[in-house]
Amino acid sequence: MMRPLQTCWNWLRRGRTAVIGLPYLWLLAFFLLPFLIVLKISVSESEGVGFKDVLVVKQGLLQLSVKFSNYVFLTQDDLYFKTFVSSIKYAAVTTLLCLAIGYPFAYFMARAKATLQPALLMLVMLPFWTSFLLRVYAWKGLLTEHGWVAELLTALRIDHLLLSAELIPALGRYMNSPFSLVLGMVYTYLPFMILPLYGNLAKMDLRLLEAASDLGATPWVGFWTITVPLSKAGIIAGSMLVFIPCVGEFVIPELLGGPQTLMIGRVLWDEFFSNNDWPMASTVAIVMILLIIVPLAIFNRYQAQAQEARR
Amino acid sequence: MSGAKTWFGPGFARGFGKAWLAAGYVFLYLPIIALVIYSFNDSRIPNRWSGFTFKWYVALTTDREMLAGLWLSLRIAFFTACASVILGTLAAFALVKYKRFTGRTLFSGFVSAPLVMPEVIIGLSLLLMLVSVQRAIGFPERGMLTIWLGHLLLGMAYATVVVQARLLDLNPQLEEAAMDLGARPWQVFALVTLPMISQSLLSAWLLTFTLSLDDVVLSAFLSGPGATTMPLVIFSRARLGLNPSVNAVATLIVLIVSIGVVVASLAIARAERRRALDIAAAART
Hints:
- The complex is a heterodimer.
- Chain A is mostly helical.
- In chain A, the strands form two sheets. A two-stranded antiparallel sheet of chain A has the order 1-2. A two-stranded antiparallel ribbon of chain A has the order 3-4.
- The two termini of chain A are 45 Å apart.
- Chain B is mainly α.
- Chain B has a domain of 177 residues: MetI-like fold.
- The chains are: A mainly alpha, B mainly alpha.
């Protein structure tokens, strides 16, 4: 009688069970379960302040009452569709710009003097430690009238260029435009691009480049045929670290974006806080998850591979 | 071809590299410098310099809303950091030490997903769950506890990554040697593993502390009446426009964080050196 209990107790006492079980249960309860609830609410009928249960026992029969009207509404409403498309567009542009600025940056960091590298790395991480909210707010000051960056851009006549690309509403006005939004997102997420790329490029075996050079490749050819392909994992990790959070970004569009810059994170926020429409907010969240699930899977795969490679 | 080489030679590449790095650092630091400078601006009108003053700092000392927010944020950040390091260390151990267990892929996915998952999704889903739980059992009330739960989810992910990186770098032979010499598993952990990963625990603690101190979105979803954290106060003011009190708070945060990071990294560098010396000494005997 006591035997199975004893085995069970021994199993529980084992370190392995506790080490895996505690964080696992925690994540199941506070990460997976909430998503299932969001999924449920997105398809349930609201009933006063609460929601009808999706599964109801009625007259001895288990009934499934699922309502897809929120999803149908989402596909028919033009604004939602436009918002999803523009969120992805802004996130993609931000990712490409971060890559264009961050790759050379990480490359030159990784090829700097070895004694300098810890300091250079620390200088990239330091802004990351100071408040993200305050750094985004700072751009408001730099881009409004008489702000440093605004003055500089106007003096260099870059505003003509931006206006012709319809990125700002008028000459000399930079705030609340697609320009200020993308600038803010690139600024915030640039370190997330630089750090994985640096980690990757710093580990590269430079003898490969010497070999290429001995075989007659110019530095330019060596860079494109050896360095870039070898840093693929870093490029993917960095791009996903920028792209995925950017799709659902809320704080930056709220502080730097304008009426023109539709972002899905803001729509979700408004559905929830202004319209109090919880089922709609849940539906938007579910669609957003569907949009990022593939990039997320790619990110997880590369993350896992990177861990294995370190072994 | 040789003509092209004279201008695109190694000298040019080095100069270009330096210029690119310099421009990048200016980009990263310019907003922070501007925040600090304008916190001493006498004029109420933003971006119009009219003289040096400390008045925004003096005003902060009587800013009830901000001070109450700061106190709440500090408490939440402290508890978040402690709990994140514990859960993060466990999760890192599970992933590094046990290569096979049921649902390992799912587990590693769950651990790293909050790193990139948009915060509005995490905040909304956690809130809806907590509301359902509260309706069922009357607990927990929205407030400090619920904010802490949200921050912990995010903090745990970051803590796991930091500790995991350190665990992967450890030499497993040291732990094996301790086992061979008869140490119990918990003794191996307390006497061998823990001292070796203590620096990563410290940096994970500091990182999760600052993350929690800075979070807006999760706090906004999970806070209740009377539980307004400092970032929420700052955010509501920043939404309305430029506000010198925000600049003053920012300057203080930048100052404290820079001192903290510099002191911590000096301490870590010293500990590393001492350990290297110890290892060298041990190798000689």
